[in-house]
Specification:
One of its GO terms (biological process) is negative regulation of signal transduction. By secondary structure, the protein is mostly helical. About 70% of the residues lie in helices and about 0% in strands. The protein has a domain of about 150 residues: Up-down Bundle (Methane Monooxygenase Hydroxylase, Chain G, domain 1).
Length: about 240
């Protein structure tokens, strides 16, 4: 079970790295090195996704799987499928921006104000001490069109994988809920402090609110007595002068 959890966690980390790198496409930090890092991260994510999909599908289709393990597999399934959809969205985003912004025309890059690269982030996500970076800074002829064609094929593969997942295993995401103390959501220190301050304020305001209530009651009582006195006076005047 520990091994089955490690790969989905690694996949989430790689997909998060790809999302971070994809946010730089078309900006002033976009470069041939960034596109190469995106390619390596994307390949790693797809390799992990294929292994995880086969592993989870085989377990969830097993009718003899115990209920406890099935619930755990369903949690991993929901996390993995959501992660796969995020990867698909980011791949489509990179493909669309790559078709609009070309590395050959540096003037078309958007000056976002960011500086530096993302090699360290990508290397940690790929578990590589040194990321294999592009050996040349010049853009080879036809590389961008070739990369776009490759990404289109990879996006279609992700589409088929998502469809196969939904066809082979019917896991209703809105019915899958985490259980156990490890999924509890305790109050943070900030929330606890806020609750403590709120209770103190309520305790301090309680004594001051009581006199206000008493004053309002006295005012209503005096008003009723005044109305009664005026009514009695008018009744007597009518009786004596009629």
């Amino acid at each position: 079970m520990t091994q089955s959890k490690s790969k989905p966690k690694s996949n989430c980390k790689v997909v998060a790295c790809y999302r971070h790198l994809a946010s730089c496409v078309g900006g002033c930090t976009d470069s041939l090195q960034l596109r190469d890092e995106l390619r390596q991260t994307r390949e790693k994510a797809q390799k992990l996704a294929g292994d995880i999909c086969h592993h989870l599908t085989s377990h969830l289709r097993d009718k003899s799987l115990p209920d406890g393990q099935r619930k755990e597999m369903e949690l991993l399934w929901v996390a993995f499928s959501s992660c796969l959809e995020l990867l698909h969205v980011d791949m489509c985003k990179v493909l669309n921006i790559s078709g609009i912004v070309s590395l050959a025309d540096s003037a078309s890059l958007v000056h976002t104000g960011l500086e530096g690269g993302c090699s360290d982030v990508a290397a940690r996500a790929l578990s590589l001490p040194n990321l294999n970076q592009a050996q040349t800074d010049s853009l080879p002829a036809g590389l961008e069109s070739q990369e776009c064609n490759t990404m289109e094929l990879e996006i279609s593969q992700i589409d088929r994988m998502i469809d196969d997942m939904e066809m082979k295993v019917n896991v209703l995401r809105w019915l899958v809920e985490p259980h156990g103390p490890q999924y509890a959501d305790p109050l943070s220190s900030t929330d606890s402090a806020s609750m403590a301050l709120l209770s103190i304020d309520e305790e301090q305001q309680a004594p001051t609110s009581q006199p206000l209530c008493q004053r309002s009651h006295i005012f209503v009582l005096l008003l009723l007595l005044g109305v009664f006195f005026v009514a009695a006076t008018l009744s007597l005047c009518i009786f004596f002068f009629s």
